[in-house]
């Protein structure tokens, strides 16, 4: 329908009484040109419409009420027929009815049975007839003996129902024959409902029907009024002139827009198509009122328009165009009565969007590659991640070759003619390419790989079948590759910081399209990102190896020999690398042993270096034979000085996260003194396997400063185990400290475990293969020095007691079979004891210990420590300690709670021979 015809139709369709006027408007309104006027107001028209609708509704309600009455009467009659037939058949077929009819004098019995059946069945009468139709029993006794009319079919053996009109009354009745065993009619039974009672029921229902009709009339009238009111509200009181002008505006806009509009009815016919729709869909001039199946539309577009479903920007081909189609359903209350479809030509936009989609897909691929490549700092794993990302989204087969120096974590060299295949991934099995681990050599100057290395950028071989230079190095291998279906190649040098690390080859096979120039850029970008990750992994591997080497050299290379403890140890680095956990075993004079366990917060090279500095400091402080609390105090001061910032190390990490446990065990009596700085208390396992965690004084971690360190004391029976550990053993992400301590308790609670077995059980039970934190573990089982190898003398504070004590010591050495050490021991004892009495303070005590060595100790109550010096020419004394140093293998001084102890140690089995020249010079002067 053209625009002119539609406008003519609109004017012709105006209601009677409307006329055109070219005069000016008489009142305000939206129209500024021509307008239509009418002698009737819009409200009068609405009232007429309302009355007409009310009349129609009244007629419909009356017809419906009459139909309901008729239907009710019919249904009532049918119900009466069925009820009468059921009662008659039940009585006629009842046991004993046929026998009673053949028995003389059974009328009274039948009469009683009929009255009872009438009441039970709910009918108006039940009559029993003989074969001739004479009543033998009836609800009305006055009718007994009279002949019934119209029962001939039943007498002939056929049951029937009818509407009976006659004497004694009009009724709906059923007559059923009564037959004996030989199928001979011996009587009849008639049951029915009087017509007057049936009409009475219908009359009772009539007020309900009339009330329902009145209610329907009221609802319809109210609905009509609401619809009329809503119509007035929706049109905002506009008259036909305004509505016509609005239609003209809409019609002009509809045909002016550059978007096709198609309105389709519920029957699939085209109701409206604007000019743009005609152009885009190539519709004929008579497309209006034609069905969609008759128009030359594409199958996809036709299916979309006939589906009856809403669509948004559905791109569908239409001839040589790509149309973006939007459809919306139209109809009352959302019912699918029709469809409105709009069309936009997106052919050129689709081409541009296709390129944008391709670019977006490549960017998404590269972004995903950046997320998946380099998740670990492992060179080989990073190469495998590169191949996993590229297959199958970019290539069917990917191979990665790296220099051996890169795999070892070393700096890559300029020699790139030999690489090792590190990763190979294919979308299907059976690739003929060389496997992982094989050496790949680049010896032919004209192959694509060598060309890529020489140019420093990717080389594309679109079709391998046509590339002769690719076959030059290995013709047989090239033939097998082609036979497997591989047909296209991109080879890219893997470069980082301008240095070649390896090669990456992308292959396509089977039905995959060959590589194009656009794929080269993606491959180069992918390899560039992987090269950075591989180089980072290589550098991390080198630094990690350096840190591991440093840490191994900083930790004890072996446990020292000593007699006091049986010791086993373990160190397990964290999954993330080396850390700062450490341990040490330090022999002390008098067969005592110091046990140390420490923890530096953090990982890496700095933690390892810090650990080495603290271990060295502990070794140095231990040489001074300090008590545990004094040693930790000196260590705390050192850490505080190290943490003091300077102008050049403001960014250095502090060491206040360092913890330490220092314990000294004395096998003479099994006494152990411990002090801890922020560290976990050790576990003590007695010889029976009972485990305790002693409550030892806890001081802040090292470097906090301002807090004194305290010492705890333990008395350990022989065979007890002392378990020292760092927090990595008992604490993890899925386990708190209390749970870890309970696990440790149950693991070591065995009386017969050796220290080595204890270490093995703890590492197996409590730690995963790669823990998140490093672990240091030290297990020591105690021994006691034989009491018979310990001799002690309290010496009077008098120089005359020196000779007597010396004699007693010589006698004890003879008892021990150490006559060879007697002379040197007497000399050492004389010098130490004389100095103690001359320069010290009481009490003075001498103790000799026999173990793997012979130890002589002299203690006094003075805190003054003697020191070795060279005596002057005129000095009378000052040469005693020099003599001690010449005859003893080692000597020293340690401080105790009251006074000091000077000790000298001699190795058994040999006599110390002093340097005679030095000794002569010292004595001469």
Automatic annotation (TrEMBL):
How does the record say this protein sits in the membrane? Answer: Multi-pass membrane protein
List where in the cell it is found: Cell membrane
Disordered: region residues = 17-36
Q: Which residues form the PPM-type phosphatase domain?
A: 562-782
> Which SUPFAM superfamilies does the entry link to?
ATPase domain of HSP90 chaperone/DNA topoisomerase II/histidine kinase, GAF domain-like, PP2C-like, PYP-like sensor domain (PAS domain), Sensory domain-like
Reading the lineage from the top rank, the first entry is Bacteria
Q: Where is the GAF domain?
A: 378-544
- According to the record, the segments passing through the membrane are 45-70
Q: What Pfam families does UniProt report for this protein, alphabetically? A: GAF_2, HATPase_c_2, sCache_3_2, SpoIIE
Q: Which UniProt keywords apply?
A: ATP-binding, Cell membrane, Hydrolase, Kinase, Membrane, Nucleotide-binding, Phosphoprotein, Transferase, Transmembrane, Transmembrane helix, Two-component regulatory system
Record protein name field: SpoIIE family protein phosphatase
What organism is recorded for this protein?
A: Streptomyces albidocamelliae
Source species taxonomy: Bacteria, Bacillati, Actinomycetota, Actinomycetes, Kitasatosporales
């Amino acid at each position: 329908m053209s625009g002119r015809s539609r406008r003519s139709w609109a004017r012709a369709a105006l209601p009677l009484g409307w006329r055109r006027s070219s005069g000016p408007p008489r009142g305000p309104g939206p129209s500024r040109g021509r307008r239509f006027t009418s002698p009737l107001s819009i409200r009068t028209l609405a009232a007429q419409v309302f009355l007409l609708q009310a009349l129609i509704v009244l007629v419909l309600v009356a017809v419906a009420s009459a139909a309901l009455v008729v239907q009710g009467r019919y249904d009532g009659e049918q119900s009466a027929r069925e009820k009468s037939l059921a009662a008659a058949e039940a009585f006629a077929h009842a046991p004993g009815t046929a026998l009673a009819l053949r028995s003389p004098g059974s009328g009274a019995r039948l009469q009683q049975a009929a009255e009872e059946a009438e009441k039970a069945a709910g009918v108006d009468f039940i009559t029993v007839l003989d074969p001739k139709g004479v009543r033998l029993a009836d609800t009305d006794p006055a009718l007994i003996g009279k002949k019934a009319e119209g029962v001939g079919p039943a007498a002939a053996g056929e049951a029937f129902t009818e509407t009976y009109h006659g004497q004694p009354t009009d009724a709906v009745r059923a007559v059923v024959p009564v037959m004996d065993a030989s199928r001979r009619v011996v009587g009849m039974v008639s049951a029915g409902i009087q017509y007057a009672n049936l009409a009475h029921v219908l009359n009772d229902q009539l007020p309900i029907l009339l009330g329902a009709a009145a209610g329907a009339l009221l609802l319809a009238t109210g609905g009509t009024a609401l619809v009329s009111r809503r119509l007035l509200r929706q049109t905002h009181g506009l008259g036909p002139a305004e509505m016509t002008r609005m239609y003209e505006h809409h019609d002009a806009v509809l045909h002016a827009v550059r978007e096709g509009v198609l309105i389709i009815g519920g029957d699939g016919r085209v109701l409206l198509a604007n000019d743009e729709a005609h152009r885009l869909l190539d519709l004929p001039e008579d497309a209006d009122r034609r069905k969609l199946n008759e128009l030359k539309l594409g199958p996809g577009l036709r299916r979309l328009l006939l589906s009856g479903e809403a669509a948004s920007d559905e791109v569908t081909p239409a001839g040589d165009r790509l149309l973006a189609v939007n459809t919306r359903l139209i109809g009352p209350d959302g019912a699918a009565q029709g469809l409105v479809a709009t069309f936009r030509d997106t052919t050129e936009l689709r081409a541009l969007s296709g390129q944008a989609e391709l670019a977006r897909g490549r960017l998404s691929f590269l972004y995903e590659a950046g997320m998946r490549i380099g998740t670990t700092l492992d060179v080989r794993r990073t190469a495998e991640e590169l191949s996993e990302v590229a297959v199958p989204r970019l290539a069917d087969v990917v191979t990665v070759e790296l220099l051996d120096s890169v795999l070892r974590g070393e700096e890559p060299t300029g020699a790139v003619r030999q690489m090792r295949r590190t990763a190979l991934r294919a979308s299907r099995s059976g690739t003929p390419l060389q496997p992982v681990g094989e050496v790949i050599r680049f010896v032919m100057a004209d192959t694509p790989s060598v060309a890529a290395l020489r140019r420093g950028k990717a080389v594309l071989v679109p079709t391998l079948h046509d590339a002769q230079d690719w076959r030059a190095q290995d013709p047989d291998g090239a033939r097998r590759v082609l036979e497997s279906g591989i047909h296209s190649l991109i080879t890219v040098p893997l470069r980082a910081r301008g240095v070649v690390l390896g090669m990456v080859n992308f292959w396509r096979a089977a039905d995959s399209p060959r590589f194009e120039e656009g794929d080269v850029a993606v491959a180069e970008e992918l390899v560039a990102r992987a090269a950075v990750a591989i180089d980072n992994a290589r550098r991390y591997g080198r630094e990690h190896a350096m840190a591991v080497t440093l840490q191994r050299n900083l930790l004890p290379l072996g446990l020292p020999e000593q007699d006091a403890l049986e010791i086993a140890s373990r160190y397990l680095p964290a999954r993330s690398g080396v850390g700062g956990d450490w341990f040490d075993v330090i022999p002390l004079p008098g067969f005592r042993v110091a046990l140390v366990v420490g923890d530096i917060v953090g990982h890496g090279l700095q933690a390892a270096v810090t650990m080495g500095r603290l271990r060295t400091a502990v070794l140095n402080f231990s040489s001074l034979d300090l008590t545990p609390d004094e040693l930790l105090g000196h260590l705390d001061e050192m850490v505080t000085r190290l943490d003091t910032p300077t102008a050049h190390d403001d960014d250095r990490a502090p060491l206040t996260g360092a913890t330490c446990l220092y314990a000294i065990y004395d096998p003479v009596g099994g006494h152990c003194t411990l002090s801890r700085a922020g560290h976990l208390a050790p576990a003590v396992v007695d010889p029976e396997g009972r485990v305790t965690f002693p409550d030892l004084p806890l001081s802040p971690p090292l470097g906090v400063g301002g807090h004194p360190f305290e010492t705890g004391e333990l008395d350990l029976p022989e065979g007890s185990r002392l378990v020292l550990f760092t927090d990595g053993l008992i604490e993890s992400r899925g386990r708190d400290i209390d749970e870890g301590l309970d696990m440790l308790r149950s693991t070591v609670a065995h009386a017969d475990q050796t220290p080595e077995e204890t270490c093995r059980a703890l590492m197996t039970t409590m730690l995963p293969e790669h823990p998140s934190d490093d672990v240091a573990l030290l297990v020591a089982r105690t021994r006691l020095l034989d009491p018979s190898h310990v001799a002690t003398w309290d010496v009077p504070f008098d120089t005359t007691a020196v000779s007597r004590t010396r004699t007693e010591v010589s006698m004890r050495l003879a008892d021990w079979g150490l006559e060879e050490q007697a002379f040197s021991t007497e000399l050492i004892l004389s010098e130490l004891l004389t100095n103690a009495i001359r320069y010290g303070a009481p009490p003075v005590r001498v103790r000799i210990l026999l173990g793997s060595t012979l130890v002589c100790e002299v203690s006094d109550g003075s805190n003054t420590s003697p020191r070795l010096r060279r005596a002057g020419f005129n000095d009378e004394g000052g040469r005693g300690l020099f003599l001690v140093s010449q005859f003893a293998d080692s000597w020293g001084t340690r401080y105790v709670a009251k006074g000091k102890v000077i000790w000298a140690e001699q190795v058994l089995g040999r006599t110390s021979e002093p340097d005679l020249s030095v000794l002569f010079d010292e004595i001469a002067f």
